[in-house]
## 1
Amino acid sequence: MKRCRESIVAILACCSMGTFAAQQRPNILFVMSDDHAAHAISAYSDKLIQTPHIDRLAKEGMKFNHVFAANSICTPSRATILTGQYSHINGVPVFNAIDTNKVTVAHRMSKAGYYTSMIGKWHLGTNPQGFDHWEILPGQGDYHNPVLYTREGSKKYQGEYVTEVITQLAIADLKARPKDKPFFMMMHHKAPHRSWDPKEEVAKKWRAKTIPEPATLFDTYEGRTEAIREQKQSIARNLNKRDVKGPYPEGLTGDALTRWCYQRYMQDYLACIESVDESVGEMLKFLEKEGILDDTVVIYTSDQGFFLGDHGLYDKRFMYEESLKMPFLVRWGKNIKAGSTQDAICVNCDFAPTFLSLAGEKVPAEMQGVSLTPLFDGTAPAQWRTSMYYRYYHTPGDHNTARHFGVRTTTHKLICFDGKDQWECYDLVKDPAELHNIYDKPEAQAVVQELKRELARLQKELKDTDNLYADPATWPKSSSYRQAPSAKK
Ligand code: CA
């Protein structure tokens, strides 16, 4: 479990420079949706929905099975992706604005000679920096009749649906791009974020369907800490009338009402995803038509995972698998074997180093992730990490989710709800659904101690040693959550 990060960085930097600097540098299309759980992509699980266009990336490229968010919530994940740093270093632990003076991967890609653009949901409380072109939703943005901001001003897309608007803007920008340089586009969908408002004709189709329930919809939380009982992200208790798009049926109570709420939630959530899948299809079709599909690294991911009734929950935040895990699919012509998979542990702080490595650039020391390019052949270097560090700060947040940190290895997970000094430990091999907390079991004490040592090692390595941001009073100010950035700045 103990690995020297410096040696990994040195080896991988060396590999990546040698591999990609000499050849023509690829375009990069990074498509990220918001709150799209991997188990709502048929390449990962076909129980809930068919996503043929997203699946094409897996069929013609690589499916990553263990990509995790360092802090499973929208704004912090976006900041980590841009900076290659954990929240305690990049200064975005909760819903606070990113420092506009911060040098991000966009600046570095631009300096490396790429045309850089950012289309769609930004949600970092400031105007994007380092991009040649940007067109963003203010704050969370709207599903219907969305407004988008550019440097020059704003435009309302009356009568249009946000996923389609973002797709058309991305295609228009790629058509207008300078052809003498490669492009780096971040295309960020708003969907399928709450309030899960699909296109009406797609919604109608999904409202006629019955969605399979997860095995843990009625999880009793036996043996778990207070955190999972005290949360307010429960299908049974916390979905409001706006979420279910209407009044609750008369006379329905208890488990029957929970089941009804689950159906209403999931029908709309999955309908939103159907439009995202169509968007991916449109983008692939466009790249093909332009004759640049195989020269473009196409990535599909989400800013974190999401609970789809798992453990009786919606939303994210907790370090449990459904929330922690990000879908991550990569297609890159013949450079990645079709239908390949990768099980190595990756973190969203690896994305920025990956982009730079593809551009033939050195990964700067300030970035805490490593390039994923050495994994593209399906193997993993012997020194690759075998554990990852997680930390969530937003207590009580919108859902009374207790702050926590933890470590996930290839076989186990240890979580500390540090506000209460309560712990959970799971054997992910024997108990992948994370139902049996073994933290206090006598037979688990050796592994618990080993995980605590690994947790301490990761905290030291990642410089999260001063308990920064554990207290809400120390959170960075100037939160612009739900506020539109000024188009004039
Ligand atoms: Ca999100």
## 2
Amino acid sequence: METKKRILTGDNTTGRLHVGHYVGALENRVALQDAYDTFVILADMHAFAYPKYVGSPEIVSDSIIQVTMDNLAVGIDPKKSKIFAESTVPEIYELGMIFSMLVTHNRALRNPTIKEEIREKSLGDNYSLGFINFPILQAADILSVNADLVPVGEDQLPHIEQTNEIVRKFNQLYGEGSLKEVEGKVGRIKRLVGIDGNAKMTKSLDNAIYLSDTEQMIKDKVKKMYTDPNRLHPTDPGKVEGNPVFIYHDAFNPNKEEIEDLKQRYLLGKVGDVEVKEKLYIALNNFIAPIREKRKYYEEHLDEVVEILAEGSRAVRGEAKLTLNKVKEKMKLPNF
Ligand code: ATP
Ligand code: MG
């Protein structure tokens, strides 16, 4: 029997998912779920790595349901993919503890995304051991189900590299071929900018358009969106490149002719921000409307959402146990 290759992918449970998640990771996740056995993780223990959420268990707990509904709404099919909460698979913690023995303290601190998050979230030196351990716990997520491919946004690539270092170290110490290296797969937009012009749309900075936003919310956010700061009047020639409004048009407006026309007129000072934004809001709303509709079904059938999570957890625990047993056996740890 031919077995399919596997995907492990997922999100922190620190709110709801936004259009940056969509172009960065969700789109690939949905497209590949036929070709791969797909595991979607709700990284709820990872959420506690952040000072902002460690004291807010109600946000993390609610987010488990919200993020599950977001995944289902964009087309993750529970018949093809398993969706599960990290905290319900204790085997992952065991693997995480074991893998932490293979990573030096210095190496853990040298992770560029960890450094960036310390800066971005102004953590100073006020972060937990769990925060530094974030990529190592992520390695445990990935390796627990024996994944081959990990669809992620660009910011996660250093964590994939860390995972592969752990694999190589483990194999070198306990036997070649014990664990398998994985590949990251970045989406069509590596890192979508925020509506405030920040380099990354992120829940933490609240600069996001969410997949669950209402039409009015999208309209209000687009109206406030950052554009070309040097352009004061609609008759001033504007900058298209790097302008968030046009980045979003390119990402979400299927009408390429309309975009080209707007760009040309913008460059010449022949169109105002109001028209560019009006067309963007319509395009974004058309993109989100069917997602919102599908999400509504699950909002009204929460029992189904919970059942999907319970089933996902059961399946993943089975897989993770196999990996953990193999790892412990290789390390000559007792099984009595
Ligand atoms: P937080 O700021 O709380 O970490 P986040 O918005 O970065 O939240 P994650 O759960 O960390 O969300 O990310 C889930 C997945 O979506 C990851 O693969 C991540 O790389 C990707 N992703 C997140 N934001 C973006 C973005 N703006 N552009 C592209 N991909 C993104
Ligand atoms: Mg993140």
## 3
Amino acid sequence: MNLVEKTEKIFALTTPLYYVNGLPHIGSAYTTMAADAIARFQRLLGNQVLLVTGTDEHGQKIQRTAQTKNLEPQVFCDQVSAEFSSLWKLLNIQYDRFIRTTDSRHEVIVKDFFKRVWDNGDIYLGEQKGWYCVSCEEFKEERDLLEGKRCPIHTNKEVEWRDEQNYFFKLSKYQEKLEHLYQHHPDFIQPESRRNEVLNFVKQGLQDFSISRVNMDWGFEVPVDPKHTLYVWFDALLGYATALLDPDEEAGLEKALQKWWPIKLHLLGKDILRFHAVYWPAMLMSAGLNLPHKVFAHGYLTKDGQKMGKTLGNTVDPITLVERYGSDAIRYYFLKEIEFGKDGDFNEVRFINVLNADLANDLGNLLNRTSNMVKKYCGGNLPPITAEDIPVENLLKAIGLDLGSQVKVAYQDLAFDRGCEAVLALVRACNKFIDEHAPWSLYKQGQQDAVEKILYAVLESVRLSAYLLSPIIPDTSNKIYQQLGFQVNFNDQTQTAITTPFAVHSQWGVLSNKQKLGKPQPVFKRIEIPKND
Ligand code: MSP
């Protein structure tokens, strides 16, 4: 395999490393669910995938929160970090690496990286004066502050005045190089609207930023001056590199970057785009390292129009949601209902209505009614038909022939809503097709051949839909595939790319009467709207 082929087959992607100042909420879960869907889709394509997630555990915000709980920061971090990994399991997230920035190997990577940047002459000691938001762990421009010197993102928090000596990173030196990057790699920042925001920000002229703090010891020492602690963001971004080490591999920056670097995709919320699209590539340029291929910033999940967050305390608890509705329901709602890149509000009634309409009625019922007809009209066996027996004029076949490539592009564009809608259009067409062709009447008229073609076309469409939705609703897709007689487990990532490769299973006509249909069962149970709780 030549180098080009090798790198095309390797796909490392990241979620942000979440702050452990509070329990995970649905906002943090959102990025992770999206990342997992992409990872699953990439695995179906046959790529080697590494999904990186983890927790960001240093800095003032965490230190202060631990203090308020009377806990040692490390003890506090251990507790909250475990909550993240267990939520990811509940949400059926198949992460490959969970990096914690308090991992001892991470310190080695950060120091190796610091040395490269230092040796390149891009770090100097200077004066830092300005308003600092501890919740953002970021200095703010005075003009951006709300009344009462409050942070525009954490609207209930006042910023703090800082006047201290810090080490700075020479971001200004990378102004032209960054502009060149954005111009020559227009896909580097996505979506387009966010890209424009970054371009406008950079156009105003980049300023060096401080990468150390004094009077704060929850973090790594600055290697050249132990009185200083490295700024949490300088430390955290490098978590993406540390995560690439194999589990028992000795730490070292070069080693870490050997197999999976460069990262193909950083997924994050729009609040932290600047760090990923401006600071991070400049830091990498300074260290002489390759840049990630793409940074995608999605929107905020809001509740009553306000960003949901730990600091504001207006979060939706994902554990309650998962326990009530199961992981597929949550994954489906957030990925299908919100255009990835735009903000979206959460409303439980809407959530239930969407799931009932799409998964319980349109998809689940379709399989159920069709399986029942197969039982009645075909003795419970799949009709002995192949895809070639169905003419291309058949509406379902016509839609299905194109659907795989259409949904592939949607996943590649991270347009989950578009992908789901395209699949749902086929599902709805199937229901209409059955109603219009009324196989029960054809059966009575003795038109067995026509009945079999209809049932085959519908079941094949259901199979195709389940396959294409499997990165989003793997459990439901499993139930559908099993009912159609396949021995497949979409949660077994070592197996699916071999048993159900995208190139084959995204095509129309995979179903054959060699499969023995399973017992009809509801693949997605209808949800009742809970009474005022
Ligand atoms: N620790 C930093 C990231 C360092 S990455 C090297 C951080 N952590 S965070 O926990 O505050 O938030 C991380 C991410 O969580 C956001 O960028 C976003 O991906 C997700 N979200 C947090 N709140 C969210 C919403 N209300 N809505 C959507 N996503 C949200 O920043």
